[in-house]
Amino acid sequence: MEKVSKDILEKAIKTWGTHAQLLMVLEEMSELQKEILKNVNRGKDNLDAIIDETADVEIMLEQLKYIFKIQEQVKERIPVKLEKVKARLEG
Fold this sequence. Notes:
Number of helices: 4
Largest sheet: none
Structural class: mainly alpha
Helix content: over 70%
Number of strands: 0
């Protein structure tokens, strides 16, 4: 994923506040979930909506990591999690 500008993250958090942005993370994840369910359960052709909501979620996850100062911890944890997936696939 292309990195979200630190300046944009800081300005969004300063403008709308930490609490509002944390709630927005949940709202955007919910919107993505809704679009996936429409696609899977109803067979809706909504790929554009899934793309848009995925982009929104990725942006908000960057804010989440910035708010909690966990960018490096998440980056380090991803390979560990992928190894677990690999082990399940192989075993």
